[in-house]
Amino acid sequence: MLTRKDLCKETLRKPAHAWKRITELRLSVGDIGMKFGSGAYNSINNGVLANEHLRLLFSQVRPNAIPLVDAFNHTDHYLGSVLGRYDGNLYQKLYEGAWKDPLNETVVPDGYQDYIRPILKQQILTARL
Questions:
Q1: Is 85 within 8 Å of 93 (Cβ atoms)?
Q2: For 88, phi and psi rounded to 5 degrees?
Q3: What is residue 108's predicted lDDT score, i.e. its pLDDT?
Q4: Which residue intervals define the domain Acyl-CoA oxidase C-terminal in the entry (predicted)?
């Protein structure tokens, strides 16, 4: 009969192995441009295959992502997250955090008038109802 510890071990074995493979692939694909120059990759297809394999591994890890992250026992403070709040003020803290973001220091970000507004105006004029 499986104990709770054995069950957790068996449940997380495949996702933990996929996590390990993700780390290995991310490290090898991370500087793929440098590796092309050195001849480590003989074709761009190898990089494409590595990225496809990463997507497959992500799909295997996704259902168990929270237990895997919890297994590292990082605090929400360390992760920069307010999602694990115990006082129930999640949305208030998310709102406050958004206002602390440097992009929200001004009401209208730099470049809006020059680049974004003309595009939005053009789309409104060409939109059909």
A1: yes
A2: 85, 5
A3: 79
A4: 40-121
C-alpha–C-alpha distance, residues 53 and 40, integer Å: 18
What pLDDT does 74 receive? 80
In angstroms, the CA 54 to CA 73 distance is: 24
Provide the pLDDT for residue 70: 76
* The dihedral sign for the CA sequence 34, 38, 42, 46: negative
Mean of all residue pLDDT scores within the chain? 75
Residues 73 and 67: beta-carbon distance below 8 Å = no
With a cut of 50, list the residues of the chain below it in pLDDT: 1-2
The pTM score is 0.47
